[in-house]
Amino acid sequence: MTAKPTVLRDLPADLQQERLPKHVAVIMDGNGRWAKQRGLPRIMGHRRGVDTLKELLRCCRDWGIGALTAYAFSTENWGRPLEEVDFLMTLFERVLRQELREMMEEQVRIRFVGDLSRLPASLRAEIERSMAETSQNQGIQFSVATNYGGRQEIVQACRAIATQVEQGKLHSEDIDEALFSQHLYTQGTVDPDLLIRTSGEMRISNFLLWQMAYAEIYITDTLWPDFDRAEFHRALVDYQQRDRRFGRLSS
Ligand code: IPE
Ligand code: IPE
Ligand code: MG
Fold first, then answer.
1. Most ligand 1 atoms within 8 A of CB, residue of 199, 204, 221 to mutate
2. 192 — phi, psi (to 5°)?
3. Is-above-0.85 flag for pTM?
4. Which domain range does residue 215 map to?
5. What is the CATH number of the domain that holds 124?
6. Is 158 part of a structural domain of the chain?
7. Which catalytic residues are annotated (predicted)?
8. Which of 122, 116, 113, 119 is nearest to 141 (CA)?
């Protein structure tokens, strides 16, 4: 299959294409508060949040951003009421089934990052199907962090590496940052350049702890269901004004 040419649709004039982030990560927060403000049950916020994510994915594709990672469910979110957890698992499964065709048309490569073993079997089956079917697509890499925890990810990487050392396949001196990164769920994807968190919370909540080392952080008070193209545009304008020094001095 030949790759579709990248057509940049409607890139706003104040954004410089060569200075766009290669990878955007987003903590989609504030669904519950959005619903509460409207006197609706929390799950209505999650439902609306799906539309926001679909629009952000389209926008990243239109503007030529190569990778998007969205935090959908953390290892700590199991502590929520059972009805909410169940609703979310069912929602993920339904959305995946509904969106597969469009993802194929849009050449999206979907991947799930996190410990998938604890997810309901029917969701896992849908996840595996979507990853397999889209694996050869040539467009945006879309990662969904589901039952994801940054610490859990680091621990599982340590275990995998320790096993190889035990089996004599690896020497401890060979362990370096590059090798470690290859054992993370995100292996093969550049670290995020930009982290967006909605709903005004000033924390990372166990998201991409290793990968976030030099991400630029953008926090908006807007609740996730209200985060739209105009908001994303503002985040990118802000990002392009940052002086990314990586510990060095400004040029
Ligand atoms: C984020 O919205 C979605 C998930 C964590 C699944 P929240 O559900 O955390 O919404 P708030 O923070 O309670 O408003
Ligand atoms: C982070 O949001 C997790 C996701 C967006 C999936 P939370 O709402 O769970 O984070 P805290 O509890 O406010 O830190
Ligand atoms: Mg929250």
1. 199
2. -65, 135
3. yes
4. 19-149+192-240
5. 3.40.1180.10
6. no
7. 29, 77 (proton acceptor)
8. 113
Does 103 fall in a domain? yes
Catalytic residue among 10, 62, 77, 193: 77
For the chain, what is the domain count? 1
Ligand 1 midpoint to CA 241 (Å): 29
- Going from the Cα of 209 to the center of ligand 2, the distance in angstroms, rounded, reads 14
**Ligand positioned closest to the Cα atom of 206:** 2
Q: Active site includes 221?
A: no
- How many helices (H) and strands (E) are present in the chain, helices listed first? 7, 6
73 lines ligand 2 (CB under 6 A): yes
Q: Is 45 buried (19+), middle (13-18) or exposed (0-12) by CB count in 10 A?
A: buried
Report helix, strand or coil for 141.
Answer: strand
Asked whether the predicted pLDDT for residue 1 surpasses 50, the reply is: no
Question: Residue 52 domain-assigned?
Answer: yes
Matching residue, tokens 């502590």: 79
Ligand 2 centroid, distance to 240 Cα (angstroms)? 27
- Domain contains 182: no
